[in-house]
Design goal:
2 copies of one chain form a homodimer.
Chain A (H helix, E strand, L loop, with lengths): L1 E9 L3 H19 L2 E6 L4 H7 L5 H9 L2 E6 L3 H4 L8 H11 L4 E7 L12 H4 L3 E7 L9 E3 L5 E9 H16 L4 E6 L5 H14 L6 E6 H10 L6 E4 L1 H11 L10 E5 L4 E5 L16 H13 L3 H17 L14 H10 L2
Parallel strand pairs in A: 1-2, 1-3, 3-12, 5-10, 8-9, 8-10
Antiparallel strand pairs in A: 4-5, 4-11, 6-7, 11-12
The structure holds 3-isopropylmalic acid (IPM) (2 copies).
One 3-isopropylmalic acid sits at the interface of chains B and A.
Protein name (chains A, B): 3-isopropylmalate dehydrogenase
Keywords (chains A, B): Amino-acid biosynthesis, Branched-chain amino acid biosynthesis, Cytoplasm, Leucine biosynthesis, Magnesium, Manganese, Metal-binding, NAD, Oxidoreductase
Catalytic activity (chains A, B): (2R,3S)-3-isopropylmalate + NAD(+) = 4-methyl-2-oxopentanoate + CO2 + NADH
Chain lengths: 350, 350
C-alpha cells in the first residue's frame, strides 16, 4: 500500500515528537514493505510567524491531497495572555478540523500494566480500564458565533448543534460499542442545556437501531467524577466538543502520563492523527518530551487504513520500551533517555 | 442573634439530609443561645407535582424575606430523559439563584485526614489539599438564550458574560486568596472562546489591585487534569458557571465522598447554602444518604453571619463522627449508621 501522509509538526515539542513517529513509520515501511510518502507543512504559531496565518493555503491543500495527516502540537503562550491578538495558533487546528470535516475525535483511555504506579489514582481503581471517548469535533461552542461588543465589555459564544451533526458521530460510536463491550454512555447537561436535550433525543432514537448496545446517560459534572471514581464502568463515551475536550484530558491521568495518549480525528474523506497533549513549550528543544503519544498516533493511522499487523508491531515496540524502562523522564524520574533515544528504541523494535 | 432561615428540602434525599442540618442548628441554638426561625417551602420536582412549578411564588417570597436559605437537593430522573418536558425541577434552583442574585458559588475542597483511604487518589497526592472554588453562578451558558427550531432538529445555548458579572466575583475571589495562600488560578478556555478572553482580560486588570496575590491561568482541559495530578498546587480557583460545575464535582473525589462537600452561594443581599451533591433518588427514604454535606452547609451559613465559634462547634462534631466512624455506608462499607443516627451523633456533640 502507498499512503500519502502530510506531516504538520506545529509548535513547541510538536516537531520533536513527530520526528519519532516518522522514524517508526519508516521502520514499518522496511519491515512490512509498505510505502509512505511524507510531505511537511506549516501550522500554528510557527505558521503565523512565517506566513502570517496559522493555516496557510498550501498547508490545507497538502492535507486535502493526502491520505492522512500526522499532526504534532499547537499553541504558544505568547498568544494566550493577549486577549486582543487577532490571530491565534489554535485557529489553525480548529480550521483544519472544520475544512477537512473531521467530525469525530476518538481517544482511547487505557491503564498500562507497567505504569500503574505512575497514575495519581490507586491501582485497584484503574487496573483494567479500557474505554474510548468519541468527541464531536467540528460543532458546538468552539465553532459557534463569537461576539464582543464595541466597548469590549460583553462577550459571547454560541453552542449550536444540529441533528445531522449529532447523528453521524452517534452512529460511529454505537458501531464502536457494538465491537467492544456493548455499552455507550452519552455525557451531556440535559438538565440545563437545550443543545444537550437535542443530543439526548437524537442519540436515544439512534440507539434503537443498535439494540445490542446498552445506552446510558451521565450529566457532565457527574461524569467528571465517575471517570475518577470508577473508570472501569465505561466502554464508549460519546459527547459534544467541549465536554469531550475536558473529560478526555481528565481521563489522561488514568494512563499515568498524558504523553501516552493518541487520538484519531475522522471525517468522511479525511483523517488526522495527533497526540492529545499540547505543545508543552517549556520542554521545547530539550529532548525530554515523551514521543509515545505521537508514535501511537501513527499506529492509529495504520489501523485506520487496515494495516492492523503494522499497527500492532508499533504498539508491541511501545510496550517493550515501557517494560524495559526506555522512557522519558515524565515516566521515570531521572531517566537518562531522551525523546530521540526512545524513538530510536521503538523504531528499532518494529 | 436571630436569623430567619428558609428551609427548602427539595427532592430525593434532600429532606432527609436537611433535617439533620436543622438538628445541628437547633443544637447550636441551645448551646450558644442563638435563635433561628425556620420556615419550610417547596422547590423542585415536588413543587412541580404539588404546584405545577419548580419555584412557586410563595417559596421565592419566603426566601427573599429570610436571612438565608438552607437548601436540600433537586432533580428527579423522570424529567431527565424527557427532552420535551416543559418544566424541569432544575429550573427551580436556577431561577432561585438568579432571583436572589446569588452570583458566587463557593466550594471548599479539602482532604480529610481520617478519610485519605476513601479517595480513589493516592494518599501522597491528596494529603494536605486545601483549595476553594469560586464558581460564577448566575451567568454564562446556563442562563443564555436557548433555542430549538420548529422542526426540533437544531438547538443552541448562548454563553454570555459581561465585565460587571466577571468583576464582582473576581473581587470576592481575590479577597479570599488574600486571606489564604495568596494564589488565584483563573480557569478558562481563552484559546478558543471569546467569553473566556473577556474573563482573562477583566481578571488580569482586577488582579493589579491585589498585588500580593499571584495570578495564573489554566485552560479548563488542563485544569481537569491538574486537579487530579496535583491538587495541592491550588489555593483559590476562579471560573465561570459551567466550568465550575464540572471541576467542582470532579474535585469532590479528593475528599473521599461527594457526601461531604458543602457550598455557599452568595449575593449582595441573599445567601443560600447547599450540599454539592444531587438528589440521589435511588437512596431516597432509605436512611443511607450522608448528611455531612448538608450539616457543613449549615456551618457555612453560620460563618457567613460571623458565628465563627458556632460553625467551629459543628465542624468539630463532624470531625468526631468521622474519627469515630459514626458515618453512613458511603464512607464505611457495611456501616450500621443511618442518616438519622449520624445526624443525631453530630448534633449531640455540639
Ligand atoms: C488546542 C485546542 C484548541 C484543542 C481543543 O481544545 O480542541 C486541544 O485542547 C485538543 O483537545 O485537541
Ligand atoms: C442541578 C444543577 C442545575 C446544578 C448545576 O449544574 O448548577 C448542580 O449540578 C450544581 O452544581 O449545583
Amino acid at each position: 500500500m502507498t499512503l500519502k501522509i502530510a506531516l504538520l509538526p506545529g509548535d513547541g515539542v510538536g516537531p520533536e515528537v513527530l520526528a519519532q513517529a516518522v522514524k517508526c513509520l519508516e521502520a514499518v515501511e522496511e519491515t512490512f514493505n509498505q510505502r509512505f510518502i511524507f510531505k511537511e507543512a506549516l501550522v500554528g504559531a510557527i505558521a503565523i510567524d512565517k506566513k502570517g496565518t496559522p493555516l496557510p493555503d498550501t498547508t490545507l491543500k497538502l492535507c486535502k491531497e493526502s491520505d492522512a495527516v500526522l499532526f504534532g502540537a499547537i499553541g504558544d503562550p505568547k498568544y494566550d495572555n493577549d486577549p486582543d491578538a487577532k490571530v491565534r495558533p489554535e485557529q489553525g487546528l480548529l480550521q483544519l478540523r472544520k475544512e477537512l470535516g473531521l467530525f469525530a475525535n476518538i481517544r482511547p483511555v487505557l491503564s498500562h500494566p507497567t505504569l500503574l504506579d505512575k497514575s495519581p489514582l490507586k491501582k485497584k481503581v484503574i487496573n483494567g480500564t479500557d474505554f474510548v471517548i468519541y468527541r464531536e469535533l467540528t460543532g458546538g461552542i468552539y465553532f459557534g458565533e463569537k461576539k464582543l461588543n464595541e466597548e469590549g465589555t460583553k462577550a459571547s459564544d454560541l453552542c449550536e448543534y444540529s441533528e445531522a451533526e449529532i447523528s453521524r458521530i452517534a452512529h460511529l460510536a454505537f458501531k464502536a460499542a457494538k465491537g467492544r463491550k456493548k455499552k455507550l454512555t452519552l455525557v451531556d447537561k440535559a438538565n440545563v442545556l437545550e443543545s444537550s436535550r437535542l443530543w439526548r433525543k437524537v442519540v436515544t432514537r439512534i440507539g434503537e437501531s443498535y439494540p445490542e448496545v446498552a445506552l446510558n446517560f451521565l450529566f457532565v459534572d457527574n461524569a467528571a467524577m465517575q471517570i475518577i471514581l470508577n473508570p472501569r464502568q465505561f466502554d464508549v463515551i460519546l459527547t459534544e466538543n467541549m465536554f469531550g475536550d475536558i473529560i478526555s484530558d481528565e481521563g489522561s491521568v488514568i494512563g499515568g502520563s498524558i504523553g501516552l495518549l493518541a487520538s484519531a480525528s475522522i471525517g468522511e474523506e479525511n483523517a488526522l492523527f495527533e497526540p492529545i497533549h499540547g505543545s508543552y513549550p517549556q520542554a521545547k528543544g530539550n529532548d525530554i518530551a515523551n514521543p509515545i503519544a505521537s508514535i501511537l498516533s501513527a499506529a492509529m493511522l495504520l489501523e485506520h487504513f487496515g494495516l492492523i499487523e503494522e499497527a500492532w508491531a508499533i504498539k508491541k515496540a511501545v510496550d517493550k520500551s515501557l517494560k524495559k524502562g526506555i522512557v522519558t523522564p515524565d515516566l521515570k524520574e531521572n531517566s537518562q533517555y531522551g525523546t530521540n533515544q526512545v524513538g530510536d528504541f521503538i523504531a528499532h523494535n518494529i
